[in-house]
Amino acid sequence: xxxxxxxxxxxxxxxxxxxxxxxxxxxxxxxxxxxxxxxxxxxxxxxxxxxxxxxxxxxxxxxxxxxxxxxxxxxxxxxxxxxxxxxxxxxxxxxxxxxxxxxxxxxxxxxxxxxxxxxxxxxxxxxxxxxxxxxxxxxxxxxxxxxxxxxxxxxxxxxxxxxxxxxxxxxxxxxxxxxxxxxxxxxxxxxxxxxxxxxxxxxxxxxxxxxxxxxxxxxxxxxxxxxxxxxxxxxxxxxxxxxxxxxxxx
Length: 250
Ligand code: BV8
What we know:
Layout: H1 5-13, E1 16-21, H2 47-50, H3 53-58, H4 60-75, H5 81-92, E2 95-100, H6 106-110, E3 115-117, E4 120-127, E5 133-134, E6 154-158, H7 167-179, E7 182-186, H8 197-204, E8 208-212, E9 225-227, H9 231-242
Helix pairs in contact: 5-9, 7-8
Bound molecules: ligand BV8.
The site of ligand BV8 has 36 residues, from α9.
C-alpha cells in the first residue's frame, strides 16, 4: 500500500503521537465490530441497549450470556498485524500513547504498554453494588454468579452506556491528545463520547490528524491524511515505509 510522502515525513519526525482505536482494529482478528449486525442469537439485540445498567438490572442473565459469548469470541482471537504495527510504533516514537475503546485485551496481548483502556476490559469482573474486583466465585447454576464479598451480582468490568469513564484514564488521554504532534484515529466510527472528543481536542491544539478506516466517519473531513484501508494493511505498510529496517514478521 502506497503511503503519502508527506505523512512518512511527519511520522518520522514526530515526538508525541496519540492513537485512538476502536472495534475496527480487531475486525481482522475475527471479532465483529461493535455496530456490525450481531450474529445468531444476538442478531435481534441492539448492542448499545445490552451494554447498559438498565439492561443488566432488567435481565442480568441475558446480559451476562451476551458478554460470555463475546468473551469466548475474544478468547478465540489473536492480535493481527495492525496490533503489532502499533507495538512497533510505540518502540520507535519518543512519546507514544495508545488509547483504546476496545475491551478485548488484544493491544496488551500484542505487547502495547503505553495503553489506556477507556472502556474497561471484558476479561475482568467486578460486582454490581460495590465494584469489588471479582476473580472467582462459588460454583453455581445461578447466572450471573455472586460476589464472594457482598453477594451482589457479578458483571463485566467494562464502562456501559450511561456510566462514567474512569476520570484518571480519560484525563490522561485528554492531556496526551492536547500535547501530541500527530493524532491517529483507527477503526472507530467516532460516534461514542467522550472518546470521540479526543481527536477534536488534538485538532484544536494543532495536531496533525490521521484517520485509518475503510469507511468515512464524521471526522474524515477534518483529517490531514486518510488511509482508507483496513488497519491490518495500512499500519504495517506505514511502519515498513517509515522504518524500513523493521522486521515485518513481528
Ligand atoms: C458517559 C464498553 C456520561 C461496553 C462501550 C456526549 C458526552 C458524553 C456522553 C454522551 C454524549 N453524547 C452521547 C453520550 C452518551 C453515550 C454515547 O456516546 N452514545 C453514543 C452512541 C451517541 N456515552 C456514554 O454513555 C459514555 N458515558 O458519557 O457517561 C455520564 C455523565 C455523568 C454521569 C453519568 C454518566 C460511555 C461510553 C462507553 C460505552 N461503552 N464499550 C462493551 O463493549 O460492551 S462503547 C462501544 O462503542 C465499544 O467500546 C466500541 O469500541 C465503542 C465505539 O465503537 P467503535 O469502536 O467505533 O466500533 P463501531 O462498530 O462503531 O465502528 C467500527 C469502525 O471500524 C467503523 O468505522 C468501521 O468502518 C471500521 N472498520 C471496520 N473494519 C475495519 C475498520 N477499521 C479499520 N480496519 C478494519 N479492518
